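Re-running the complex after MR caught last week's input typo. The corrected sequence lines follow. Everything else is unchanged.
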Amino acid sequence: MALPATSNPAHSRVHDTIHPAADSAGGDHGEPERSFEERLAVAVSDAQLSRNLTNFQTGWRASRETAMEEIEFQTMRERMKAAKTDAIDNIEHYLDQFIRQMERAGTTVHLAPDADAACAIIARIAEEKGVRLVAKSKSMVSEEIELNHRLHEDGVEVVETDLGEWIVQLRGERPSHMVMPAIHLARQQVGDIFTKTMGREISREDVGEQVHAARDVLRDVFFNAGMGITGANALIAEAGTVMMVTNEGNGRLTSSLPPVHVILAGIEKLVPTYEDAMTQVRLLARSATAQRQTVYTTFIHGPSPGHEQHIVLVDNGRRAMRDRDEFREALHCIRCAACANVCPPYREVGGHVFGHIYTGAIGLVVTPFLHGIDAVAGPQSLCLSCNACEMVCPVEIPLPRQILDVRKMVVEQKGLKREKAVAMSVYSHPEVMKLLLKIGRHAQRPLTHGGRLVRGKHIPILNKQTRWRSLPAIAPARKRQP
Amino acid sequence: MTSSTPAFDASVSDRIAMFSQKLGSVGGVAVEVAGGTDALAAAIVERNPSGNTVVWIAHETAGRIPALLDALKRRGLEARIAASPADVRDQALGLTIARATIAETGSSLLVEPTVEGRSVSMVTETLIVLADPSELVPSLMEAAPILREVSANGASYATFVTGPSRTADIERTLAVGVQRPGVFHVLFSAALR
Amino acid sequence: MQTIRTAAAAVTEKLPSHRAGDSPDIVPGASQPLIATAAAGMTVALYPACMTRMFYPEQADAIVTVLNALGVSVIESENQHCCGLIPHNSGDAKHARPMIERTIEQLEAIPADYIVSGSASCVAMMAQDYLHVLRDEPIWRARAERLSHRIIDFTSFLVNVVQLPAGSLTPLDGSIPVMTYHDSCQGLNALGLKAEPRYLLQDVMGYEVRELGEVLCCGFGGSFSVEYPLIAERLMDRKLANADATGAPLLATDNQGCLMHLRGGADASGRSLQVKHIAELLADRVRERQSERT
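Corrected-run output:
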């Protein structure tokens, strides 16, 4: 694989040292994906992860409440839901309108039915333009289609310019959160990977120093890249305008400096009007990071003079989701990750376990359509139906119900685990249950000593279940009296 | 809409006060500069990083504020037009004019069709945005028709900018100026009308 | 399985208890209610959750005690099994469906204006999830919809239907006992209960309710706590630590799953924290006033 031609030493360092880390969570660098069980075991044994995420969640909840006080959340979310319902219900109409407007502005529009097609389109553009280095700003779709891996195979180097995305890229990991990709990492880990990458000591403690060092490396990437790839937060149909938000400004640099600009977006990102986009702006930052507004909210309509612009609009299972009534609303998602930020199991295991590329509650719903049933079978079992996600979703997606519908799909296609299947079967026979309870009332006596609790700390078989909480004894048969 | 969004007929200075408060909370600074062109030039020079003698502007900016640029020159700050992004890279000071400003969020709408013009607000260390107070709208909703107008005639590139570049990607610790600019000022002046 | 089932049926046939579902018991309400409310003379059906019947029948009794004392008669149909939540939450539609149908049939047949349950999760299942499961079947869906209008959780019934007056069940000794309250996920998020339990606890019963420091699931999640004990334990520990931080000796909730989980956790960790169902607290006060009357 040829090294990109460059005289910039910092750039060479970045290239040389991007390699998957040993404990990679897999993904876009071609590393084999570790199984759900393996990822779960690693996460559960990492007490620091749970502490980090718990602090994040509790801080976020408090900040979000303050941020939402300024807008009428319920009114806003109903409005957003109405806009997205219109957009998705009438997707072909709005897609058509959007494409015509974009083409009129001078953008080349490509439609990609699936991940492979999308990768092939972008790879071809890169080849035609002799691109050796790509600057990338945040795009969940690029993760979804594993674009970086494909371009890497073609000898094109891709550098993530969103700081959090770049950090996980250097570590050979997937992002663990749709908005805060490096939320699972401590500053020491960031200092470690920067030291390795840049070939000089970078502070393990001083975040300011770490950020400054990153800026120096990434600045060269913006100026040297032959292609910039950006994502989209919304596709405004009435005007053929792409809305993109960042805090760092890397989206603007990525979409402006390289001569070729490629926008990558799922077709579900459509909204009908600028007003709808403003409602989304009101909700997005508040829901994602509890900010009033991201620093940069950009509206791109066509290429800049002297530059070339392409947009790749991706289906990859979205129309299939739209065809299922019970799942259609998942296409309303504005990718704020609020659902991950309130999720109790997410706080304990993190995004590398609670999802597959797309993480959090929405990840559990879209994954079977975008990545197949096997990718979601393990993660979906972690949802305990607490409904917290639904309470904060800015588009009122009925996530808990949809996750149970996914679970139903998983059971239909892969069956229940054997022990569970037996338990359900037994449980569904009331006469058998009555008998078992009757027997149980007697059999439990050595454990309950006539009391109302089963304490089994010292009994190996029960210990896994009873060490940490005593189980209730089966109660005496009820005699109904006032 | 809500108590935080000023009514359309709220006084300009009320709207400026709200704008300043919102922008202030994210690390930017906004003030209203009383007086005319000269006072505005003085305010810009005040914010010029010490030792710096060049202020970079977009080509489209030059034609709109010739008197101001003269006033700056007299004060030792020479305006240069960015012909390419490389010109402006890591330069100390950029100056631009907002198409509109939004009180609800403390945002400035920058319309920057060319890459070299856009560089002025993307890669300079300190950015000063000049704003006409009569273009200060109450909320995002009033900005929507402006955006529509901006994209109505061929290709366009517009951005709401709300403060200096920032990130909290490392342990949620805030770091300002992760890209550029690290310092962000908005100056409201009737001299821009 | 078939042999066991036949044997079970044969055994239960011979037991001197009630037979398959046709003759529900009615426990009449007091002719002179302890507290005068609009509910006197009403008849409601009780729907105790399967877990209540298996492990905490006294919580069902507590509901009956309270309702009777208010002059409300309570019908209970025998042979209620499961509302279907357990297989439904496991994605097991095959086993959930017969339970759903049977529950609808049984409850439809009860001539009461309300079906009251002390289980927030059963109420959410019956009043909301049934409609989704049956969405493509107009007749079943209509039956589920009719039923959904009658199903109500015990807390809402006392606050919105009975309208228990403030101060009507305060401690007779004038004390202000301290407690904390765990909003079950189904109660808080699915049923929207927040003010109602606090009204009962603070205004009606005179407790000082100290709020837990954060809104968080207790970690029970049904089979989740059996499948992922480590994660369930961590969430439970967090919840109990939050309870410790309030200094309250008593924690109440409105869902028997949460109760089972937290009571078990308090016990295994050697805590003296009492974990009770809100119905139990109400019944205690009712009994206190009833003995004071006599």
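None of the earlier attempt is carried over here. Residues 229-246 of chain C form the longest helix (18 residues). Chains C and B do not touch (no CB pair under 8 Å).
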